[in-house]
């Protein structure tokens, strides 16, 4: 790992900078999927399926996945996968091989390169917690979504996990993450950023302020992940 990325995470016990986050995800990209499987005991795929089932079927609709990472998306016919980490997108590219249903776009969630109201659905899985400006990122997601379109956020919200989960996250995740990626600090950041993140109630309120309505949330197995859904208000 480059010294500057480590220093960036150390320096900011609060919120790391955009470049630090981007570099950090770039560095863990090769083993990101493996760690997801191991650290969730293979539950992350079930959470994704459960969350995807909460929104209308996305077939023949255009869906945007923000902070798409290594490409663990639901099965849709037309999906644009946006991420600012080149390494994550390369990994997604490698996984999808010749599939033409997903288009990968390198961009920042704070400035999405699409026109207003273009998508039928917009989603973000385990991504918004890392936004340097959460409000701006959510506003962008609302902007590119057509009125009446749906949003799906799958996230590790603050305050929801039971104590064994919290213990596991704080003490075991950085050790396992450190051994397998050499980036224990990145996995310490995971625990810290989750503990400091908004509760589902607070996140829902913020989504309301940027233009979503009919918001609902569902805490998934073990209270680790929460799925939040809503609809873009008509005006
Ligand atoms: C924890 S990973 C989640 C990846 C994927 N959505 C998943 O469910 O496995 C978070 C992703 O969000 C991306 N990300 C964080 N902040 C971003 C931003 N401002 N713009 C674009 N991508 C961002 C990171 O590069 C990383 O790939």
Describe this structure in a few short sentences:
This protein is α/β, with parallel strands linked by helices and 235 residues long. 44% of the residues lie in helices and 21% in strands. Helix 4 (86-96) links the parallel strand 2 and strand 3 (102-106).
Describe the protein's architecture and organization.
This protein is α/β, with parallel strands linked by helices. The chain has one domain (3-232): Vaccinia Virus protein VP39 (Rossmann fold). 44% of the residues lie in helices and 21% in strands. The protein has 8 helices and 7 strands. It has a 7-stranded mixed beta sheet, sandwiched between helices. Helix 1 crosses helix 2, helix 2 packs parallel to helix 4 and helix 2 packs across helix 6 (163-181). The protein is globular and about 45 Å long. Bound molecules: S-adenosylmethionine. S-adenosylmethionine (SAM) is lined by residues 21-22, 25, 67-69, 72, 83-85, 88, 108-110, 125-127, 130-131.
